[in-house]
Design goal:
Order of helices and strands: EEEEHHEHHEEEHEHEH
Number of strands: 10
Distance between the termini: 34 Å
Radius of gyration: 19 Å
Oligomer: single chain
Length: 243
């Protein structure tokens, strides 16, 4: 479990709690957002949602992890290896490294018209020491970025994107991304993590993103999103529930 202090806004202290167990002791704040808790507390809980994800057990031998990848993706990973690309984890204490990710992801968000990752939240994750960002590069030029939140046991994918660089075509960039996931799996296994978590599964049937994730193997796991709070916010949520 990790706790991320996200700051004070409008006089309210806010925090995020990731991967909490059922009996976890959480320091009180005006508003606590639990992400992917293993169980829901019995009281003072609002806006509960199930969260389904896919996770790979990294305690398995490397040979087993590789065998669990489907045949097509194995072939694509081998093709990516021939592109002379490299994998590395960014230095989170190096502002140049983190800025390169921020700028690239901001451009990706604008290009794809998706929900951004606010700078204040990114900085909170960095300051809490729970963010790991990896990159695939070609001659020092970034091709794909993956950002993860972790508690030293579970590492969960937070964002995944390709850059606007034109070194590779769309098909080759796709190969790089599959190689990126496989390289991350080996990297986190070597670092001693237990679970490699793909960051969620869709509720839709025949979802392309889910097919991508399931092609690496893994097991479905269920967590919960919910909010708990104190003071006036607790009263506000209670009244809202009644209404």
């Amino acid at each position: 479990m990790v706790i991320v202090k996200t700051g004070k806004r409008f006089g309210l202290t806010t925090q995020e709690v990731w991967f909490a167990e059922a009996d976890a002791q959480i320091p009180a704040s005006n508003r606590t957002i639990f992400y992917q808790a293993h169980a829901v507390p019995k009281s003072n809980v609002y806006q509960i949602e199930e969260f389904h994800t896919l996770a790979i057990d990294l305690h398995q031998p490397e040979e087993t992890l590789h065998a669990n990848i489907n045949r097509t993706f194995k072939s694509h990973i081998r093709k990516a290896e021939k592109l002379s690309i490299t994998h590395r984890a960014l230095d989170m204490n190096n502002s140049k490294d983190t800025l390169s990710y921020q700028q690239s992801f901001a451009e990706f968000v604008k290009r794809k018209e998706i929900i951004p990752l606010p700078d204040w939240r990114l900085q909170a994750l960095v300051q809490a020491g729970v963010l790991i960002i990896t990159v695939i590069e070609k001659d020092g030029v970034p091709i794909t970025f993956h950002a993860y939140v972790h508690d030293k046991i579970r590492v969960r994918l937070l964002t995944s994107h390709n850059t606007s660089q034109t070194i590779f075509n769309e098909n080759e960039t796709g190969l790089c991304n599959k190689f990126h996931h496989w390289s991350d799996i080996l990297y986190f296994k070597a670092a001693g993590f237990r679970w490699y978590d793909f960051g969620g599964l869709s509720k839709e049937e025949d979802n392309g993103r889910d097919y991508f994730k399931k092609s690496f193997g893994g097991e479905r796991q269920v967590f919960y999103h919910f909010i708990t709070c104190t003071g006036l916010l607790k009263l506000w949520f209670a009244v809202r529930r009644l209404l």
